[in-house]
Design goal:
Helix content: 25-40%
Mean pLDDT: 94
Low-confidence stretches: none
Oligomer: single chain
Distance between the termini: 29 Å
Strand content: 15-25%
Largest sheet: 7 strands, mixed
């Protein structure tokens, strides 16, 4: 179960806004996290707490294909992103680095910033503890849950090889 307060954004949040290009000279997750969302939300890094849930509108993560964007979000403390839809390359990059993301239009439109939510990746259940409402996203397949639990694709593959 993932639990946290909601930080909310709108449609078409692109990778250049998630982590501005001027910070792409590093791949250090903690350094990237210091600048996450700063061009659209200057107080993001001051407000975000470990476990918080990001909610967004349509086409989240559009723009250039950069792994830095989901790395910055994950390193900032965000435990999960729920959106109406994701840009496909962002979706793949997020899963590959172990950042769970769910598409659920109903939840993305109804849940407000600051509310407390709980997400169960295995069932796809999203509960808004502030309002008592619940929503249903497609559950993560078991192998994707294992990939997320391992911390991403590279760790998942390393773990599998270590067990052989």
């Amino acid at each position: 179960m993932l639990k946290g307060k909601v930080i909310k954004y709108g449609d078409n949040v692109d990778t250049d806004v998630i982590i501005p290009a001027r910070y792409l000279n590093t791949s250090n997750p903690m350094e990237l996290a210091k600048h996450c969302m700063e061009d659209i939300d200057a107080s993001f890094v001051e407000r975000v707490e470990t476990g918080d849930v990001m909610i967004a509108g349509r086409n989240f993560g559009c723009g250039s294909s950069r792994e830095h964007a989901p790395i910055a979000i994950k390193a900032s403390g965000i435990s999960c992103i729920i959106a109406v839809s994701f840009a496909r390359i962002f979706y793949r990059n997020a899963i590959n680095i172990g950042l769970p993301i769910l598409e659920c239009e109903e939840a993305a439109k109804a849940i407000e910033k600051g509310q407390q939510v709980e997400v169960d990746l295995g069932s796809g259940n999203i509960i808004n503890h502030t309002t008592g409402e619940s929503y249903k996203a497609a559950p993560f397949p078991e192998f994707m849950q294992e990939l997320i639990a391992a911390g991403g694709l590279i760790n998942y593959v390393k773990k599998g090889r270590a067990q052989e």
